[in-house]
Amino acid sequence: MNTQNKLDALRRKMDEAGVSAVIIPNADSHQSEYLAEHWQTLKWLTGFSGSAGTAVVTKTQAGMWTDFRYWIQADAQLDSFKLFRQGDTDVPPFDKWLTHTLSSNDRIALDGKMVSAAQANSLKNKFSQKGIVLDTTLDLISDLWQDRPSMPRTPAFELDVVYAGETRKEKFSRIRKKMADYNADCHVLAALDDIAWTFNLRGEDIHSNPVNLTFALITMDKISLFIDPAKVSPALETTLKTDGVTLFDYDVFYETVQDLNKNARVLLDPERISDFIYQAIEMRSDIIEHSNPSVMFKCVKNEVEISHIRETAVKDGRAVVNFLHWLDTSDAPKTEISTAEQLLNFRKEQDAFIHPSFDSIMAFKEHSAICHYSADPDTDLPLSSDAMFLTDSGGNYLTGTTDITRTVHLGAPTSQEIRDYTLVLKAHIAVATARFPTTARGYQIDAMARRHLWQQGLDFGHGTGHGVGFFLCVHEGPARLSTLPVDIALAPGMLLTNEPGLYREGLYGIRLENMILVIDDEETQFGKFLKFENMTLCHFECDLVDKTMLNLAEINWVNGYHQMVYDQLSPGLDAPVRQWLGHKTKHF
Amino acid sequence: MNTQNKLDALRRKMDEAGVSAVIIPNADSHQSEYLAEHWQTLKWLTGFSGSAGTAVVTKTQAGMWTDFRYWIQADAQLDSFKLFRQGDTDVPPFDKWLTHTLSSNDRIALDGKMVSAAQANSLKNKFSQKGIVLDTTLDLISDLWQDRPSMPRTPAFELDVVYAGETRKEKFSRIRKKMADYNADCHVLAALDDIAWTFNLRGEDIHSNPVNLTFALITMDKISLFIDPAKVSPALETTLKTDGVTLFDYDVFYETVQDLNKNARVLLDPERISDFIYQAIEMRSDIIEHSNPSVMFKCVKNEVEISHIRETAVKDGRAVVNFLHWLDTSDAPKTEISTAEQLLNFRKEQDAFIHPSFDSIMAFKEHSAICHYSADPDTDLPLSSDAMFLTDSGGNYLTGTTDITRTVHLGAPTSQEIRDYTLVLKAHIAVATARFPTTARGYQIDAMARRHLWQQGLDFGHGTGHGVGFFLCVHEGPARLSTLPVDIALAPGMLLTNEPGLYREGLYGIRLENMILVIDDEETQFGKFLKFENMTLCHFECDLVDKTMLNLAEINWVNGYHQMVYDQLSPGLDAPVRQWLGHKTKHF
Fold first, then answer.
1. Rounded to whole angstroms, how far apart are CA atoms B154 and A514?
2. pLDDT at residue A69 tops 90
3. Is B293's pLDDT higher than 90?
4. pTM across the whole model
5. Is A554 touching B (CB cutoff 8 A)?
6. Is B68 on the interface with A (CB under 8 A)?
7. How many H-runs (helices) and E-runs (strands) does chain B carry?
């Protein structure tokens, strides 16, 4: 079926169900960011393969909303769906568009397993103001999708406490303490990284995210893990049982939650549980809404994790420096795809490397202006010496997850490229050198970076930074550095990225990304202050910097950072690479 | 009765009503910031006279929560109540404290007229998680407060369209259009400045806030204004009736809302309506929750208002420069209180001045470290030449409301004072020179100012700026420049203050405040950009600036601003003052 056939079939389903519109989010039953193929409904229906988007189909119209990062990609991939450039002036969000397009008493279908309880609730409220009903009990897709990929089935494995730094029993105990604080006697988890962290388990069920398809249910006297038994080895089963975990089949979960104690007081995170689960529990039990305790626990890295992350920075830094050296010096013909393979090979040389933490972005020339560009054989550009090259990649190691972006010029940069690179570097340094009280929020740090661009009438359409998991999801909440009013205080132990950028559509893009760890700074009479420790080791391109645009503190920062990069990486590099890095990091 | 007697009497009332605790907010029935004496319950009960605080009384404890700005003042004024330093590390908010102090099934009393529906709802949710009941139907204070001041009764008067720039009928029409957008057929207003703006009426019912005690009810075919008839002259009554306004007595309002059409769809702003009114309406009608349309309309000043504000900046600037000249040159003995009188006299010389927009803060020496210091005869310090003096004041003119702070040294400043003043000035300039896209929020601008202090381990406990009304409240929502995640985009026409500060308890405080107007800047390929226009004209103290701490752009800004101040103010100043200002604003 082509997209038009699918659309026609979906509209017949809509007629049968008596709904005027259907919303198809890019989502799974666990509110994951990245999706197993089984859940890539949006891609199947619309042809758009980006990681964020929402399709809406009415009887006469079909639209797909996606943000700034994917506008160029979506424009190329969509045929039967109209692209709505989410965030652009005068483009209404899909819910507002629906409210204007539909009439009172119209019904909209949205599969309740594919939407968080919080989002479903928010949508219901908005639609009800116009008298429109949101029905979250209908799944109109599954019947249509004949060749749907099956659910993933990779083995689960234990993340040793040598890496995790805290046993699962200690984690259970911390969670139960929070449950008691909230007066809850039961806690339901559906978010895969929350469960992976809590149980010290990892897997490969989702591409790039080392998690298992699971649900969990924690009470004061029982810990239940719902997972396909084929994924659990006898040895792992024994270990889990020893730690008090009872295993159930994944499929049993939905029956189990529908059958909770009538008087249970269930702790739920409406952002991280589906509307379907929420509704099922709400029928019989009291719900206590609160962020999952594991969300805050997980984002604050412990000392064992931090020491692994520091060591991983050296390994990953060597891989990236080896790659950049190869890029600069090898005569081999290169394309975007082949460079990704080369970088992967350098990472594979590193100890305890498991797999990439996301699909590398290797973007040459105008492709680098596409924030989340993904090269495929149709678009794969050969590299030449006339343009900028942006490389954004990361690794999942047993010793931590990495995320790094560098932008280089393969030939002679223009003065505009140099000016832009310098501005992005200034934004990067503004974050790297920030000092802030314990009450500070990520949006304040983001503003410090962005000011350097705003003052020149420039901007970038993504956040300055996101949280990073420990051998877990490369995008991890809840802390972030972004323009959004996320009310989470930065706290020591939080691992984030620092990645301001600048994108000139059709020309080039620049992004400079390090990972940073929130650490203690001094305490003054105005309170306790925090700062960032750099957790990525790789030089910047001084040839792309206009030194006259930097102030003395910024120049000192670059020189100090470069000295640290050289000192830490050079012992493990081959002589030619070491020499090359010495040149790249020389005092400027 | 002293505070202990009042506390004893209140506890007897609590026993009779069977409640374990009572919350006494600093509030009136209109969710006003400043309160008529009739509603100064917190001051009557606790002795604390600051403008923000919440008292909580249990059977055995009595606490008063107030923020940073008032800690020193509250410490001095409280006797029977324990001060909780709200915002300080390890000080729980009063609701959390109550949750920990009380037990399941305990009841808390809070007069539903004295709390917004939004806040009551939030408190109810928090308490219910612990099984504690919040009863908003009880008023335990009125019976105890024997000598309670009566409700204010000042005349209402029309703000001519020559000043307002838009007729009330045009405003009604804009509001009705929004009501239609929200599918509402009825709109209830209790916020006094919303009503004053909507009806082009002003009064003097609340000290410093030129408003009338009113309620309003707008339907598609009727406009009802609830106001004490004694306040409305026959001429004004005729004008209002001509414009389609039906007048009712203030007291009739509560019966009227309880008697709305059963099927009415009522637009309510839960932040700006009392829980009492909300509950009454919710019993019979459908509520559509949304910010009052007048809130966003009012905060975006129209062209007529803006041209008046520009003209007011000249008048108010002359008054303040005359005052600072007098402060610098007059040999007369001065105290904090006498200087306030002197400044008021200079303002009274200006055309269309009505009254101060708030009680002037004239704070000498260590008093300047108290953000909202208010001199009284017991604390009134004589001025001498050995310390800093902070003057924060404003005027209500028919042509607009002003708010300005300057800090001067009456003798020879120390190097720390100069360093601190320079840092605050750098923060001020960061805002004044900011350029930002139309998506920018106030918290981003705040962060740009605060960075200059944070980098040095310094901070200040208030926002960088607040909205200002047009001949209305000096603090006007919803836009603000603060650390809080207020999700309101800055838009052309918004009038704000720019007032970073720095306070060294026991020594001195510095605050530098101008009003700023959001205006259009250029449009680039990254979108439309905005910037600020300065709406306050008064020099800064170059003697308090360490020029080596400023970069070239900052020095240029000071010189450019000083040139503008001199050019605009000097024509209306007496020769000695003009000469003095010339010296103060000379190129540096």
1. 62
2. no
3. yes
4. 0.94
5. no
6. no
7. 18, 28
CA distance A405 to chain B (A): 22
**Which residue of chain B comes nearest to A524, CA vs CA?**
B457
Q: What is the ipTM of this complex?
A: 0.92
pLDDT digits (tens, 9 = 90+) for A434-466: 999 999 999 999 999 999 999 999 999 999 999
User: A200-209, B373-382, B430-439: which range is least confident on average?
Assistant: B373-382
CB pair distance less than 8 Å for A459 and B129 = no
- Choose from A287, A444, A508 for mutation: most chain B CBs within 10 A: A444
Give B348→chain A minimum CA distance, Å: 39
- Whether B387 has a pLDDT exceeding 90, the answer reads yes
* Predicted pLDDT at A95: 96
- Arithmetic mean of pLDDT over chain B: 96
Dist CA B37 CA B40 (whole Å): 5
Q: What is the CA radius of gyration of chain A?
A: 24
Tokens coding B440: 């920018």
Residue tagged 């309101």 (tokens): B488
Torsion angles phi and psi, residue A312, rounded to 5? -65, -35
A448 touches B: beta carbon within 8 Å:
yes
Query: Is any Cβ of chain A less than 8 angstroms from the Cβ of B506?
Result: no
CB contact under 8 A, B529 and A130: no
Q: Which amino acid, B497? A: T
Give the nearest partner residue to A447 out of B444, B457, B487, using CB atoms. Answer: B444
At A88 the pLDDT is 87
Average pLDDT over residues A204-222: 97
- What is the rounded CA–CA span in Å between residue A292 and residue A194? 8
**Where does the pLDDT of residue B87 fall: very low under 50, low under 70, confident under 90, or very high at 90 and above?**
confident
Q: What is the pLDDT of residue B70?
A: 87
> Residue B453 and residue B430: Cα distance in Å, rounded?
12
Closest CA to A122 of A89, A99, A106: A99
Letter for the amino acid at B259? Answer: D
How distant, in Å, are the alpha carbons of A151, A321, A351, A583, B188 from that of A576?
A: 47, 12, 22, 11, 76
Q: Which residue of chain A has the CA closest to B523?
A: A457
The whole-number pLDDT of residue A261 equals: 83
Average pLDDT over residues B273-299: 95
Q: Percent of chain A beyond pLDDT 90?
A: 92
Q: Which amino acid is at B447?
A: A
Q: What is the pLDDT of residue B251?
A: 94
- Cα separations in angstroms, A301 against A14, A317, A476: 47, 20, 12
Distances (CA, A) of B177 to B276, B294, B355: 27, 12, 35
Q: In whole angstroms, give the CA distance from residue B152 to residue B136.
A: 25
Inter-chain CB proximity B129 and A183 less than 8 Å = yes
The shortest CB-CB distance from B485 to any of A129, A437, A441 is to A441
Answer whether A89 touches B (CB < 8 Å): yes
Those residues whose C-beta lies under 8 Å from the C-beta of residue A436, and which sit 6 or more positions away, are A444, A445, A490, A529, A530, A531, B454
Residue B318 sits at the chain A interface (C-beta within 8 Å): no
State CA A160 to chain mean position distance. 24
Partners of A526 on chain B (C-beta within 8 Å) are: 457-459
Cross-chain Cβ contact B441/A485 below 8 Å: yes
The per-residue DSSP string of B533-564 comes to EE-------GGG--GGGS-HHHHHHHHHHHHH
Residue A14 belongs to what H/E stretch?
helix A3-17
pLDDT tens sequence across A463-503? 999 999 999 999 999 999 999 999 999 999 999 999 999 99
- Shortest CA gap A288–chain B (Å): 7
Residue A434 and residue B440: Cβ atoms within 8 Å?
A: no
Closest CA to A254 of A187, A190, A185: A190
What the block records as the tokens of B193 is: 């400045």
